[in-house]
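Email to the structure team, subject: DUF8009 domain-containing protein model.

Hi all, the expression group asked for a predicted structure before they design truncation constructs. Nothing fancy, just the tokens so they can compare against earlier work. One-line instruction: predict DUF8009 domain-containing protein, return tokens.
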Amino acid sequence: MGEADRDPTTIRSLAISPKDAVDAFVYGRENPGEGVLRITPPFHGRMRARIHVYHVDDAPVTGAIHVAPADVIEADVVDAYPTLEDELEGADAAETERIRERHADAVEEWRATARTALVDSVSLETAAGPHRVDVKPLG
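Reply from the structure team: attached below.
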């Protein structure tokens, strides 16, 4: 792979599955580890970003670029993600189950909204500084 193939500033657009973006976002809120959209070299004008989950970031070794899913979902939708907050504190088993079911339903509704709320462009962090690219939803 040549040096040009490792230059992420050659990227002009990212093809992203809305489902991948939403799944990565939710994974990071509901599980240990980090969910991101990963772009791997060799880089070229049009790239596909795929969901990737990790506990240890290997991007410095692989040359991959990780995009936070919150960066490709509209900010107001990200801010509207339903949380459990302190609802479970002091709840008995039956109430805990009802709270969890309501939360699961709210997350499913949020997912449907978020899949239609991808941004038009995103900034990639590169060695040369931020590099803005177009976001092209798949599907």
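The chain is about 30% helix and 25% strand. The beta strands are 13-16, 34-39, 46-54, 65-67, 121-126, 129-137. Ping us if the truncation boundaries need rechecking.
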